[in-house]
Amino acid sequence: MPFPLHRMRRLRNSSWAREMVRETSLEPSLFVEPFFVREGKGKRDPVGAMPGVFQLTTDALIKECAKSQEVGIGAVILFGIPSKKDAVGSEGYSETGIVPRAIRELKKALPDLYVVADVCLCEYTDHGHCGVVSQDSNGLLLNDPTLELLAKESVAYADAGVDMVAPSAMADGQVKAIREALDDRGFENLPIMSYAAKYASGFYGPFREAAGSAPQFGDRRAYQMDPANAREALREVELDLEEGADVVMVKPALSYLDILRRVAERSPVPVAAYNVSGEYSMVKAAAERGWIDGERVAMEILTSIRRAGADIIITYHAREAARALAAH
Ligand code: PBG
Predict the structure, then answer these.
(1) From ligand 1's centre to the CA of 277, what distance in Å?
(2) What per-residue confidence (pLDDT) applies to 218?
(3) What is the band of 219 on the pLDDT scale with cuts at 50, 70, 90?
(4) Ligand 1: nearest atom to the Cα of 316
(5) Is 176 a catalytic residue?
(6) Structural element, H or E, at residue 278
(7) Which of 81, 109, 121, 309 could form a disulfide linkage to 89, CB 3.0–4.6 angstroms apart?
(8) With contact defined as beta carbons under 8 Å apart, do 203 and 279 qualify?
(9) Residues 6+ away with beta carbon under 8 Å from 45
């Protein structure tokens, strides 16, 4: 008697059979591609720690988004880099700030593109924290004043024509405050994707170079979650759902696939995972040295995030992954 083959060997001997029995698949429509938008014209400044990622002026942003659309990416998320910063991040919620202007121009040039905007103040405050802080609070957000500004920022983006807002400040009650402000202004149909389970992570390092948002004192551990905690993430998600989140996010993705799985099993709404800057840069750095096959590893990572339960994947690999999917 030959040994009974139990490893799906008979189903792996043709590429068609492999595809037929594959449990997880990727499509470009799952991806949301992040973009950093800055003031000026005709500029495309590379971000040193993130090969392939640029700080773009709005004209360059439109060109890049058009290229992404060509390979099937339908959604982008915008982060603003203002020309001036202050203690309360006023460029973040100004109607004439960089992100509202970019939204208006993008929607005019590419009306079918789904434009999400990150709602936070860390890119706009001179101290680099995600909201209003006081020197002696050691980075702890002053919650209620922060809520007010995040709501204002969301309304400024809504007025500009954004398709979805994504609050990432981790202020308590931010989803509720934003929902109420949007509803008051007639934006009842504008969805909120909340960064519900956001960990205090070293993986955000390259993003802070890209967005110029490293905290100048204290750190974000005061309002982002401890990587050692899982139950806390479930509680955060529950609260954001109660407050009216339409999509909940887990961030980062890779070191938190267990959290993603647990959230996906429980969530009545779609779940997003943010494959963050450090996760991207590590792949790029190792691939540049020839230590790994960058495309293969990127696809494996994205597949693992999908397999863990993500409905939406925010990733800097979006365009190369969409190209790879089209080529195979
Ligand atoms: C906050 C925000 C951050 C990221 C997305 N939104 C930075 C932070 O919390 O420090 C990080 C994303 C990444 O690392 O790619 N506005």
Answers:
(1) 8
(2) 78
(3) confident
(4) 15
(5) no
(6) helix 277-288
(7) 121
(8) yes
(9) 38, 54, 55, 56
Task: Measure the CA–CA gap between 298 and 320, rounded to whole angstroms.
Answer: 9
What is the model's pLDDT at position 141? 84
Residue 2 lies in a domain: no
Provide the residue range defining the domain that includes 219. 24-247
Running DSSP on this structure, what letter comes out for residue 161? T
Run of H or E including 222: none
Distance of CA 86 to the CA centre of its chain: 24
Q: CA-CA distance, 83 to 123, in Å (whole number)? A: 10
Q: Is residue 264 part of a domain?
A: no
| pLDDT for residue 138 is more than 70 | no
Q: Is it the case that residue 323 has pLDDT exceeding 70?
A: yes
Q: In this predicted model, what pLDDT tens digit does every residue of 71-92 receive, in sequence order?
A: 999 999 999 999 999 999 999 9
CATH number at residue 193: 3.20.20.70
Q: Round to whole Å and give the CA distance between 196 and 213.
A: 20
Does residue 104 fall inside a structural domain? yes
Kindly state whether residue 258 falls inside one of the protein's structural domains: no
Q: Which residues line ligand 1 (CB under 6 A)?
A: 118, 120, 122, 168, 204, 207, 220, 276-277
* pLDDT at residue number 175: 97
Which ranges of 215-293 does DSSP label H, i.e. alpha helix? 231-243, 257-266, 277-288
- Give the dihedral of Cα atoms 256, 258, 261, 263; nearest 10 deg: -70
* pLDDT tens track for 260-309: 999 999 999 999 999 999 999 999 999 999 999 999 999 999 999 999 99
Distance (angstroms) between ligand 1 centre and the Cα of 40 equals 23
pLDDT at 15 > cutoff 80: yes
- Residue whose structure tokens are 């392939």: 52
Structural domains of the chain, count:
1
Side chain identity, residue 16? W
Q: Distance from the CA of 44 to the center of ligand 1, in angstroms?
A: 21
